[in-house]
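About this split. The held-out portion is used to measure sequence recovery: a designer receives only the structure tokens and must propose an amino acid at every position. Recovery is the fraction of positions where the proposal matches the reference. Here is one held-out target exactly as it appears in the evaluation file.
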């Protein structure tokens, strides 16, 4: 495929606008159309990104998917709409780029993966953090054994808005950190556990077994804060703190080993990745800290989303599955989130995956 890849983008909200910018500016892509039910968003995107008149603006995604000549569809719409949009695009023979999570139901994610294989089309999930240069460099540090024996991990992802009305804080935030831990460890979770608290939306809930929103479940409302434990096959555990009702904005993840701790802190733009070295020596009947020093790990500057979009287009050109952001990987993450939701609804009961 030597001609530009013809792309339609569904969703012109906050993240959709970033995707429009990246695909519109990419030399190997041609943005044919943008669809969003709110026409004012389309107009705003056109003015803000200086889109030319060749880009078709539509409030009806069905018209775009049926009437436009396309190679691929980019989906940046609420998660509850993903299954229908992805299914229709794959059925028409289009490659698909979808915002995370792939779907809200494991069975639907599995079905879409099978459909993509059947039509020999790429199903690519936007797990942007897995393309962050700090995550890539961090994986190299771990593989070099600089942390010693891995012991446990922890992450905090908190902020004050945006507050979602279709999913809870778990589904909105946890997928990023779980994806990073999975990648750094090279393992999949085997058991999960979660508890949560609701303040803002006590009468609004969602049920993973039903496409209808909102409905009631055992946890009344959408959880505003969630504490989760992820256990891996090696016994390694990661602890997550997730909240969209906290003015202390954090984007911090750490992996602790016997020789030091690797810290990815997105809020520190000039040094997002650090290695805090240190270990304990036996002194008499006690222990004493030794080798304590903090090292900044150099990370090449890059926009992760630009790398994501470029990789998707490359996967289309070669019709090759992405090793870190495929539909199967997206499905694995949905499986973990479904397990965590089940635990949340059962008051923190451990769930085997």
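Reference sequence for scoring:
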């Amino acid at each position: 495929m030597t001609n530009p890849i013809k792309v339609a983008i569904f969703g012109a909200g906050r993240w959709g606008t970033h995707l429009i910018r990246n695909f519109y500016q990419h030399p190997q892509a041609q943005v044919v159309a943008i669809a969003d039910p709110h026409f004012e968003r389309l107009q705003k995107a056109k003015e803000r990104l200086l889109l030319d008149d060749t880009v078709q603006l539509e409030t009806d995604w069905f018209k775009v998917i049926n009437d436009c000549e396309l190679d691929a569809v980019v989906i940046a719409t609420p998660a509850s709409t993903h299954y229908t949009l992805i299914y229709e695009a794959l059925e028409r023979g289009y490659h698909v780029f979808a915002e995370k999570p792939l779907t809200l139901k494991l069975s639907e994610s599995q079905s879409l993966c099978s459909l993509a294989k059947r039509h020999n089309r790429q199903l690519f999930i936007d797990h942007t953090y897995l393309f962050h240069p700090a995550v890539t460099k961090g994986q190299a540090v771990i593989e070099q054994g600089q942390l010693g024996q891995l012991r446990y991990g922890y992450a905090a992802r908190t902020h004050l808005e945006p507050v979602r009305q279709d999913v809870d804080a778990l589904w909105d935030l946890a997928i990023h950190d779980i994806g990073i831990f999975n990648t750094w460890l090279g393992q999949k979770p085997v058991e999960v556990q979660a508890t949560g608290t609701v303040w803002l939306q006590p009468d609004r809930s969602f049920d993973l077994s039903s496409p209808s929103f909102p409905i009631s479940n055992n946890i009344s409302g959408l959880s505003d804060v969630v504490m989760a434990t992820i256990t891996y096959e090696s016994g390694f555990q990661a602890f997550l703190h997730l909240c969209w009702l906290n003015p202390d904005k954090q984007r911090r993840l750490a992996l602790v080993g016997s020789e030091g701790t690797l810290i990815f802190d997105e809020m520190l733009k000039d040094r997002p990745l650090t290695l805090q070295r240190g270990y304990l020596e036996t002194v008499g009947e006690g222990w004493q800290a030794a080798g304590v020093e903090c090292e900044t790990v150099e990370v090449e500057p890059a926009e992760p989303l630009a790398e994501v979009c470029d990789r998707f287009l490359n996967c289309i050109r070669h019709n090759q599955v992405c090793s870190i952001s495929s539909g199967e990987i997206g499905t694995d993450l949905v499986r973990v989130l479904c397990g965590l939701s089940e635990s949340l609804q059962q008051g923190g009961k451990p769930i085997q995956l």
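Annotator remark: The radius of gyration is 21 Å.
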